[in-house]
């Protein structure tokens, strides 16, 4: 007869309860039985262990008592031989044996310190031992002083003294007591062993019973499970038939929810992507606009700086005029520094690496740092790079150090200690970012300011991320430093904790070359100006006037009429540059469009050098040079530009000099001399 749901419902209540409770009762009984067995086994084992320990202690006490008895007898014998022979070696043997007997007595006292029966005997034994020791010591002393007769008499009396008899009696009593205990302990050990053996037998019996109960439990559980399966099968059939429609609706609802969530995620991702694209396009547009403005502004500054220099050369003896010219030159220098900031933001600053001595570079920056961060911050130098040099863009490295110094000033709120350090480091592969293993120069800037939280530290290199107040920072400083260090083949690390200060470490590869490191500072003139709270990256050396301006004939010797082709599309810059070149003694052939350069070279075969702008209509300066016929490829070229971009990655600039606008007469002359000297073998 098939089992139905109605049969289950009609089953007696007590039977259903018993069926459900039976496994619990059986399991509980097994657990209780196991716990009882474990308890009795533990008690039997503990009883056996205690009996064995007591037995072992009695053995040790008896053994120590026998050793003490033996040592006292040996000491007495040695003293007798010493009195007869008066041999000092035998006397020392007596002393050693008596001292060992004292140690054994101390051991015996320690072993029986908790024994109320033996402790009084040991105390009496100690008194008898000390009394006997005093008597024997007197005999030994008389023997030492050659009083043999007296010593023999004393020894004879001592051999019949009560102290010796008392010592022997006490030792015998101690040993007899421990022997009595040993017999009792041996019985206890035997009883405990029998108990353990009985527990082992019980374990085996219980094991057999447990196996039988487990088999019975398995059979009983299998029967219950079979019945439950029959019941559950009927219940499941009814249940799933009832929920079939509901499950289908739930599945469809889940699909719709997943589709909606996916659509929502895609919408959010698309919105974020569009926002990122708009931000990137905005920054690209701002960068292009900034770079273009800086380029045009540099052209105007080139005219201003060149005109001021020429005017100053012609204003000899006119102190008032020279003073006004110097003031105007200072303003031009500050404007130049502003364009450098704009070009750095637009990523249009060229990377011009040179061999640098880091210690000299930081030492030369000390005055500028003092001026830039205020009198209430102490600047301390710890320069240990030694003779190690680096190969990096001096301008960008100095800007990075100055930027870090200003960040430290802001973190210290204008008061504290700023430490600049250099040191030699040998890094393992991957120890600092992706730096390969090798030798590095570490340049670090440390402040004792507010420090950074882990959250801020994690985003420190993110572009446009700043913790400064609105208008106090752009969030580009550390990002530009990160890019510069990576471009130089190094790495950067920040160590900071809140309220513990910050240390920024720049790791730049050591440069091995015979070339002499450049020791000039690009901050000579800027350091004379008072910088605003938000520092402006200073200009390069080739944009700043020298501290003193001697006459043109003494600083800029004539070039003996050397011919130069000047290519510049801006007529004002062309005129100013032409005047500067004439002032330097060159014969100038002017060209206002790059397309005319080839014809002018054919008409003027004596041209020895070309000075060209970079950004011009129709074609750039590098494109113009690349398009020249092969017979003109040996002519040295100097590119003058205020927007050179990253020239290190442009192969068209390879082998040519770069002159940054605005430039001084001295910088122009130096670049031309370098270009002519470099091409001398091929001319």
Secondary structure blueprint with pairings:
Blueprint: H1 5-10, H2 13-85, H3 88-111, H4 118-144, H5 148-159, H6 162-313, H7 319-345, E1 353-356, H8 358-373, E2 377-384, E3 389-393, H9 394-411, E4 416-427, E5 438-447, H10 454-458, H11 477-487, E6 491-496, E7 502-511, H12 552-555, E8 563-567, H13 571-583, E9 587-591, H14 597-603, E10 607-613, H15 621-627, E11 637-641, E12 657-660, H16 665-678
Parallel strand pairs: 2-4, 8-9, 8-10, 10-11, 11-12
Antiparallel strand pairs: 1-3, 3-7, 4-5, 5-7, 6-7
Helix pairs in contact: 2-3, 2-4, 2-6, 3-4, 4-5, 4-6, 6-7, 6-13, 8-9, 9-11
Mean pLDDT: 77
How many beta-strand segments? 12
Helical content stands at 55-70%
List the uncertain runs. 1-10, 515-558
Number of domains: 3
Shape descriptor reads elongated
Distance, first to last CA: 118 Å
Q: How many distinct helices? A: 16
Please report the first level of CATH classification, the CATH class of the largest domain: Mainly Alpha
For the largest beta-sheet, the strand count, sense and barrel status come to: 7 strands, mixed
Structural class: alpha/beta
The CATH topology of the largest domain, please?
de novo design (two linked rop proteins)
CATH architecture of the largest domain: Up-down Bundle
């Amino acid at each position: 007869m098939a089992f139905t749901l109605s049969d289950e419902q009609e089953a007696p209540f007590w039977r259903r309860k018993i069926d459900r409770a039976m496994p619990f009762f059986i399991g509980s009984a097994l657990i209780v039985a196991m716990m009882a067995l474990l308890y009795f086994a533990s008690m039997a084992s503990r009883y056996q262990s205690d009996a064995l320990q007591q037995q072992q202690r009695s053995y040790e006490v008896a053994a120590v008592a026998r050793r003490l008895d033996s040592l006292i007898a040996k000491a007495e014998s040695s003293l007798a031989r010493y009195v007869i022979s008066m041999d000092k070696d035998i006397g020392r043997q007596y002393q050693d044996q008596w001292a060992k007997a004292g140690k054994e007595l101390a051991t015996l006292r320690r072993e029986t310190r908790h024994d109320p029966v033996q402790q009084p005997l040991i105390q009496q034994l100690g008194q008898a031992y000390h009394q006997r020791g005093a008597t024997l010591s007197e005999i030994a002393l008389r023997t030492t002083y050659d009083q043999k007769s007296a010593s023999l008499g004393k020894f004879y009396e001592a051999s019949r003294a009560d102290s010796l008899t008392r010592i022997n009696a006490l030792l015998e009593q101690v040993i007899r007591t421990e022997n009595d205990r040993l017999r009792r302990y041996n019985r206890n050990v035997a009883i405990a062993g029998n108990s353990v053996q009985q527990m082992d037998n019980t374990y085996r019996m219980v094991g057999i019973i447990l196996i039988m109960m487990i088999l019975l439990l398995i059979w009983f559980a299998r029967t219950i499970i079979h019945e439950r399966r029959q019941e559950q099968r009927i219940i499941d059939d009814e249940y799933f038939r009832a929920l079939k429609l509901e499950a289908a609706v739930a599945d469809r609802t889940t699909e719709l929810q997943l589709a909606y969530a996916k659509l929502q995620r895609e919408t959010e991702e698309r919105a974020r992507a569009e926002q990122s694209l708009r931000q990137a396009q905005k920054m690209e547009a701002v960068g292009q606009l900034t770079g273009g403005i800086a380029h045009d502004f540099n052209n105007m500054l080139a005219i201003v700086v060149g005109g001021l220099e020429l005017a100053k050369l012609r204003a000899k003896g006119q102190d008032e005029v020279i003073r006004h010219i110097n003031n105007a030159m200072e303003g031009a220098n500050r404007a130049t520094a502003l364009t450098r900031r704009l070009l750095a933001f637009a990523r249009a600053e060229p990377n011009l690496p040179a061999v640098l001595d880091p210690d000299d570079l930081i030492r030369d920056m000390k005055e500028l740092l003092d001026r830039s961060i205020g009198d209430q911050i102490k600047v301390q130098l710890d320069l240990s790079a030694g003779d190690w040099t680096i190969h990096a863009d001096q301008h960008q490295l100095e800007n990075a150090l100055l930027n870090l110094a200003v960040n430290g000033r802001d973190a210290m709120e204008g008061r504290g200690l700023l430490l600049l350090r250099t040191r030699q480091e040998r890094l393992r592969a991957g120890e600092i970012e992706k730096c390969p293993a090798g030798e590095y120069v570490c340049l670090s800037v440390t402040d004792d300011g507010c420090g950074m939280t882990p959250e801020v530290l994690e985003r420190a290199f993110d572009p446009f991320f700043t913790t400064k107040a609105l208008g106090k920072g752009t969030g580009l400083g550390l990002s530009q430093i990160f890019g510069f260090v990576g471009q130089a083949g190094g790495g950067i690390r920040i160590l900071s904790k809140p309220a513990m200060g910050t240390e920024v470490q720049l790791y730049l590869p050591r440069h091995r070359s015979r070339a002499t490191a450049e020791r000039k500072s690009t901050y000579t003139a800027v350091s004379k100006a008072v910088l605003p709270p938000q520092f402006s990256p200073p200009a390069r050396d080739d944009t700043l006037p020298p501290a003193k301006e001697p006459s043109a004939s003494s600083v800029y010797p004539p070039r003996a009429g050397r011919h130069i082709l000047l290519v510049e599309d801006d007529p004002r810059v062309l005129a100013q540059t032409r005047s500067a070149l004439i002032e330097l003694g060159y014969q100038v052939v002017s060209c206002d469009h790059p397309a005319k350069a080839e014809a002018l070279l054919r008409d003027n075969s004596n041209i020895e050098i070309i000075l060209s702008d970079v950004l011009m209509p129709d074609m750039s300066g590098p494109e113009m040079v690349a398009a020249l016929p092969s017979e003109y490829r040996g002519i040295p070229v100097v590119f003058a530009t205020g927007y050179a971009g990253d020239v290190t990655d442009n192969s068209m600039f390879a082998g040519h000099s770069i002159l940054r606008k605005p430039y001084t007469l001295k910088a122009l002359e130096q670049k031309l001399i370098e270009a002519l000297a470099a091409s001398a073998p091929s001319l």
